[in-house]
Each structure stands twice: as C-alpha cells, then as structure tokens.
Amino acid sequence: MVAADNLPKNSPESKKLEFDLSAYLKERQKLVETALDKSLAIVYPQKIYEAMRYSLLAGGKRLRPILCLATCEMTGGNIEMSMPTACALEMIHTMSLIHDDLPAMDNDDYRRGKLTNHKVYGDDVAILAGDGLLAYAFEYVATHTQNVPPFQVLQVISRLGRAVGAAGLVGGQVVDLEMEGKTDVPLETLNFIHNHKTAALLEASVVCGGILASASPEKLQRLSRYSQNIGLAFQIVDDILDITATQEQLGKTAGKDQKAQKVTYPSLWGLEESKKQAQLLVEAACAELEPFGEQAKPLIALAYFITSRNN
Ligand code: GRG
C-alpha cells in the first residue's frame, strides 16, 4: 500500500483545489482493501485461491478502483453501486501484472515490494492465478452489482471486455513485445502501445463509473477524453520514474527500460520535455471536467496526483 503521507497534500494543485487528496486516498484505499479482501475467500483447491489473493491483496495504489468510485459519485451514483466494478478493475489490473511479470514476458522478480506471483507459486500456478482473477472479475460484476439497471451492468461488462482484449491491454502488450530490441520505434507506435496497455483500463475505470451512474452520452464522451489523457500522462510518468525512482520506491526493479534499451517517452523526448508533456495532458484532461463543477474536485486532484507521484 502506498503511504498516503507521501502524497501531495501541500502541492500547489491541492491547495488551489482546497482538496485533501492525501486523506481522500487513504480513506478510499481502505474501503477498496476491505472490499477486495471480502471479494475472494480461500476454498478448495486452496493453492489457486491463495495465489490469486497473494497478488490481489499485495497493495498498490488502487488507482483504477478509486477512479471508478470517484466518477460514479461525481455523476450522481454512489460507492455501493460501483464497488463490485471497482474490485473487478483491480482483479483485471492485478492479473495483467502477474502475466506481465512472467519469464515469457517482462521476467520480473519483484512487484509491489514483494516477490512476483510466479516466484512464489511457479509459472504454471501464476498463469492460472491470472486466468482465475480475469474470469472472476466478470463473474463478480454480474453477480454483485446492485441497484443498477441490468442493461447498464451489461454495458460495464462489455466495456471491461473491450479494455482487456485485443482491442485493449492484450493488443498493446503484443505490439510492445514486437518492438523489443528495436531502437527506431516511432512515436505513433509508442502511443499505440500505451493507449492500449495502460490507458485502456484507466479509461474503462472512469467510463464504467459513469455508466453505472447513468451519465449522459455527452458526459461519457468527456469522461472518455479525460481518462485517455490521464492514461497517457500516467505512462509518461511511469517511464520517467523508471529512470528517477529507486527500487524501494517503485516496489519493482528500477532502471529496467534503460537496461533493455527500450524506447520510452524520456528516450525520445528527454526527461524535461516528458514532464512537460505529462503536465499538458493532465491540464487537457481537467479541462474536460469543467461542466461537472465542484463535484469534479476528486478527479482533478487524482489527475494531478498522476504527475506528482513517486511510485
Ligand atoms: C489482460 C488478458 C490479459 C493479459 C495480460 C501482460 C498483459 C496482457 C498486459 C500488460 C499490461 C501492463 C502490465 C501494463 C502496464 C500498466 C501499468 C503502468 C502498471 C502499473 O500500474 P500502477 O502504477 O501499479 O497503478 P500499482 O501496483 O500501484 O497498482
């Protein structure tokens, strides 16, 4: 779990907003942790449930569930109706991390400050733990969402499916793997990779929150543009942190991109320009929230958190 005390309580953005992001994140992370813990019991065969829970409850910022809850509230819904989808988003995100860390992909030993799933349970069980979490995410939305019309639940399930599959995470990961070892990756391809690998699930987190609260198509469009912008900003900052943060801060191996000579935003633009671009994207994201007025404070603060975070 990220220490909320590290968050930008006194940053210019949170002062301007008069919004205590640190307290907000602490409270929301606690709600999400409790809901995730309750969502998955250990039954027979214990081994697979233990492996699924090992990564699901390993901490992390819980950004995707928090974005979903915040958007649902901003558009007139509430935490109860969005918590099952928030949990499902974290299950999907966690499974993508488990598979990403496998020797056949990024081959990482640490994630969220702990040994990766395959290091503890073996490659075979780690693959199955990822599969188990992915399937359960969809089951969980379908069986646990309350006080939302069935058509909207169906729309959420459909948006999640699109974000995960070849039109989303899987598609982004495939192109990322194809680009391994290449030094002439064009910006267009880099953007494709990260719009799919990173931004697609962040977009689904925000848009699903709006769908659950019956937001209008115009509002959903704005939410979609907000989240695409924060999604790309998130990845630019991720690339920057790979260079500037320590393994302890990141909870995973630092400096991996440079070591693998991977094309990243800082390798194309340099650190300063990358920071500037991330800031511009966050500003563009926040401009989309103007019609939501005061209610948009949490989503604006979360957007600025993306550029000021240190893990
Ligand atoms: C989804 C079916 C399916 C398979 C997985 C491996 C893969 C396909 C996709 C890779 C997706 C991936 C790992 C993208 C990177 C996204 C990213 C920036 C992760 C870090 O997110 P944080 O910083 O992590 O929010 P925490 O630990 O805080 O939750």
From TrEMBL:
Keywords: Isoprene biosynthesis, Magnesium, Metal-binding, Transferase. It comes from the Bacteria. Signal peptide: none annotated. GO terms for molecular function: dimethylallyltranstransferase activity; metal ion binding. One of its GO terms (cellular component) is cytoplasm. Its cofactor is Mg(2+). GO terms for biological process: terpenoid biosynthetic process. Transmembrane segments: none annotated. Its EC number is 2.5.1.1. The keyword Magnesium applies. It catalyses: isopentenyl diphosphate + dimethylallyl diphosphate = (2E)-geranyl diphosphate + diphosphate. It is an enzyme of class 2 (transferase). Pathway: Isoprenoid biosynthesis; geranyl diphosphate biosynthesis; geranyl diphosphate from dimethylallyl diphosphate and isopentenyl diphosphate: step 1/1. Belongs to the FPP/GGPP synthase family. PANTHER family: FARNESYL DIPHOSPHATE SYNTHASE (PTHR43281:SF1). This is dimethylallyltranstransferase. It comes from Plectonema cf. radiosum LEGE 06105.
